[in-house]
Amino acid sequence: GRRVVVVGAGMAGVQTAVALREQGFRGAVTLIGAEPHQPYDRPPLSKAVLLGKAEGSAFEVDFESLGVELRLGCEALGVRPAEHELDTEAGPVPYDVLVLATGAEPVLLPGTEGVPGVHLLRTLDDAERLRPVLARQHEVVVVGAGWIGAEFATAAREAGCEVTVVEAADRPLAGALPAEVAAPMARWYADAGAQLRTHARVERVEPGAVLIADGTRLPAGAVVVGIGARPATGWLAGSGIGLGPHGEVLADAHLRAGVEDVYAVGDCASFPSARYGERLLVHHWDNALQGPRTVAANIMGETPAVYDPVPYFWSEQFGRFVQYAGHHAGADRLVWRGDPAGPAWTVCWLRGDRLVALLAVGRPRDLAQGRRLIEAGRSMDAQALSDPGRPLKDA
Ligand code: FAD
Fold first, then answer.
1. In the Cβ-directed half-sphere of 58, how many Cα atoms lie within 13 Å?
2. Tens digits of residue pLDDT in 197-241
3. 281 CA to centre of ligand 1 in angstroms
4. Rounded to whole angstroms, how far apart are CA atoms 243 and 228?
5. I want to staple 102 with a disulfide (CB 3.0 to 4.6 A). Which of 12, 79, 196, 232 is the partner?
6. pLDDT digit string, tens, across residues 82-98
7. Complex ipTM more than 0.85, yes or no
8. In CATH, what class is 319-394?
9. Is the domain 108-225 a CATH 3.50.50.60 member?
10. Best mutation site among 35, 42, 45 for ligand 1, i.e. most ligand atoms within 8 A of its Cβ?
11. What's the CATH number of domain 3-105+229-300, 1.25.40.340, 3.30.1380.10, 3.50.50.60, 3.40.30.10?
């Protein structure tokens, strides 16, 4: 039978192996991962694992009974597509089909490499290094008010740390949400007893302090950097596999990587979305669950399956459950459902009269119904939509 080799043993790699077996693939499946740990899930790292409420977050997958060969602690170094060979630390690995699922790696704050007390939060090792920081209740400075920064700040406040979040932009989540939507979310920091400093560019990090461009010196027992992540694709340089502006593999609508018998899925790849009329690079868990099903179907099937999901993610921050579905652009029209100063509200994005995205805070029913409405592409009445008492599906 054919041999499928999957590179990267995170959510997308593991789900590819699982989906292949679920869909009846009988050939060999080898899953190769750089980290030494049993494959694990990342979302708990900034939540239960960080707070010590869960020991770890290993996937409950029995690789042996699935007939999946796991090679952990083994980094892939390159691909030679013409020879159908992957090069790894442990030597070359031949494949019939290769799946790239190497995820993303956090962006480093320039000049902080090797500075003691500066942390990232991407891996289980990172989370384990951060646990004692929380336990010692240090003064913590978080650089970046994105999703990770907000979740880390939440956990650190819960652990009793003093928390300052510094953000270069004028608001939290500046890359993801418009000012109008970010404004009520910015207030959550203060409500939780964390200090949010916007327009605050880090000049330098010294042992024990963070220096801001305006001259402020913030004492810091620890610094946590959450300023984004980039696809982990440096190892593909020179392979002939095309990379996009963020270093992502430019997959096609079938998640093929542009060279024969190679696919790419999860955080490491972008794909063209006909639904949204643009290429999407999604760094969220649900994409690493759904994409692998398409990859497995395309490895198995004769008629290529198209990957064009309604993206979805959630975040747990400052005691709120935040969910987002779809994809919006700057020109889309905002419609509010409920009072953004209150504990639960939703904001919808309309393109023409169609719902293209929504953000729901503490309103999981809106999210579930909205996600289906986006999928169906149904026309909506903006006036009815703005009434939070009326079910979204009846608007
Ligand atoms: P990854 O999980 O990054 O896995 C890739 C794996 O490949 C890694 O283990 C890496 O070591 C390995 N690898 C890389 N290069 C090589 C190589 N050359 N050779 C071999 N192996 C290699 N999303 C949500 O929707 N909601 C959340 O609440 C949420 N919380 C998160 C919290 C944290 C702390 C983090 C870090 C992420 C969170 N995410 C969340 C995002 C979500 O976890 C990711 O989208 C998901 O993990 C992507 O899966 P992946 O398999 O594509 O990549």
1. 9
2. 999 999 999 999 999 999 999 999 999 999 999 999 999 999 999
3. 14
4. 18
5. 232
6. 999 999 999 999 999 99
7. yes
8. alpha beta
9. yes
10. 42
11. 3.50.50.60
